[in-house]
Design brief:
mainly alpha, 107 residues
Length: 107
């Protein structure tokens, strides 16, 4: 049993054991992160497309606040106007999904 083993043997066993546990813990954290990131991406896409009239992959500036509100973010007119300064608009003056995701990641 471990209690009967010499101290140097127990220490050696723990040294061998800890890297494996660290590796398993890191692997578990990566899975959790990947799952959380995937769920966030689904939530972003779902909310964004709810306001994407015509399914063109972009929302009107007027709907940006609605997208934020649907995601549970504060969306006062002042805040929406301030945040719009950080989003690239497409040629039609709308917010594409990719621009929205880049903006979201920065904030």
């Amino acid at each position: 049993a471990v209690a009967d083993a010499p101290a140097h043997t127990v220490a050696a066993d723990l040294t061998d054991y800890l890297p494996e546990q660290k590796s398993l813990a890191l692997e578990a954290l990566h899975k959790i992160y990947d799952t959380a990131a995937e769920k966030m991406e689904v939530a972003l896409r779902t909310c964004f497309h709810r306001f994407d009239t015509g399914a063109k992959g972009a929302v009107d500036i007027a709907d940006f606040g609605k997208v934020l509100a649907a995601l549970g973010e504060a969306s006062s007119p002042e805040l929406v106007e301030q945040e719009l300064n950080g989003i690239a608009l497409n040629q039609e003056g709308r917010i594409s999904y990719s621009s929205f995701v880049v903006w979201w990641a920065k904030n």
